[in-house]
Amino acid sequence: MDILATESRITTGSRGTRLLGLAALAGVLALLVFAFVLTDPDVRTHPTSGEEFGQFDAVRLLYLHVPMAILTYAAYALCAAASAGYLLRRTPWWDVTAHAAAEVGTLVCALVLVTGSIWGRPVWNTWWEWGDVRLMTTLLLFLLFLGYLALRRAAVDPESAARPAAVVALVAVLDIPLVNRSVEWWENRTLHQKSTLAELKIEDLTLFTLVLGIVVFGLVVTWLLLHRFRVGWLERAEVTHGIDRAIAERRGVASTTGVDSTVGQTREES
Questions:
Q1: Is residue 44 scored above 50 in pLDDT?
Q2: 245 is a domain residue
Q3: What is the pLDDT of residue 245?
Q4: 99: which of 84, 113, 231, 270 is 20 to 30 A away, CA to CA?
Q5: How many Cβ atoms from other residues are within 10 Å of residue 151's Cβ?
Q6: Three-state SS string across 51-103, please?
Q7: Residues 220, 28: contact at Cβ < 8 Å?
């Protein structure tokens, strides 16, 4: 009963993560208000014909899509850095950090693809454009880290998957510069526009909302990373202690068997 009571009290939460979670939740609510209520739609007027054009209300999705794309880069970069740290130091902390960052990054990357597809339907008149180089390099990035996670799940022992997974992460992260620079390097093979944030083409409330989105999703990703790291650490401890327990039990049985055989031998000799 004491063991069950102790295990029931195990949690990945703490005072700090609860406060962080509340801040992230409040930030998400504020971002939704700014993005979908307070900011204006993208409506422009043609100088000669006077016809209205632009992204209209679809632009509101970019306040979610762009920050998530930036945080995808950050999470995958953290995974690669932690993977390099593991290859150099071979300590569990680096490996668990890499695994946590890969899972959170892949979740956010999936949301990037979904929100981008929803945004593309009214703006490009298509849900998906297979010839778009940014779309395809982002999809490739997503699939590479899905493979990373599949490799982690295929191994029973985390230690056996740690080294090959670290190598996969370091290879997969090389796709990030291709995703980011694709609109400049292959501008004739993408429907995406160049970065309006980098070129400072937005200002006032629009700029504030976009920056708010980056900060808010930064809080969300940090909260997810902390909890996923703690879950990963508990999983590794359970596997390690389970193996240690099995070895100890096996040694105990072997020792008992040895004692019994010695006692039997002694009796036969007497």
A1: yes
A2: no
A3: 62
A4: 113
A5: 15
A6: CEEEEEHHHHHHHHHHHHHHHHHHHHHHHHHHHHHHHHHCCHHHHHHHHHHHH
A7: yes
The DSSP secondary structure of 245-268, one letter per residue, reads: HHHHHHHHHHHHHHHHHHHHHHHH
H helix count then E strand count, the chain: 8, 2
pLDDT of residue 84: 97
Question: Which amino acid does the sequence have at 116?
Answer: G
Q: Which of 78, 20, 64 is nearest to 212 (CA)?
A: 64
Q: State the Cα–Cα distance between residues 94 and 142, nearest whole angstrom.
A: 22
Specify the number of domains making up the chain: 1
Residue 8: pLDDT band by 50, 70, 90 thresholds? very low
- C-alpha–C-alpha distance, residues 34 and 27, integer Å: 10
- Return the number of other C-beta atoms located less than 10 Å from residue 31's C-beta: 22
Whole-angstrom distance, CA of residue 160 vs CA of residue 182: 36
Distances in Å between the Cα of 183 and the Cα atoms of 106, 242, 268 are 22, 50, 86
Predicted confidence (pLDDT) per residue in 220-242, tens digit: 999 999 999 999 988 888 777 66
pLDDT at 15 over 60: yes
Compute the residue count for the chain. Answer: 270
Question: Does 130 fall in a domain?
Answer: yes
Element (H, E) at 42: strand 42-45
> In sequence order, what are the beta bridge partners of 45?
52
pTM over 0.70: yes
- Is 264 domain-assigned? no
- Range(s) of the domain holding residue 206: 19-239
Are 99 and 234 contacting, i.e. CB atoms less than 8 angstroms apart?
Answer: no
- Does residue 109 sit within a domain? yes
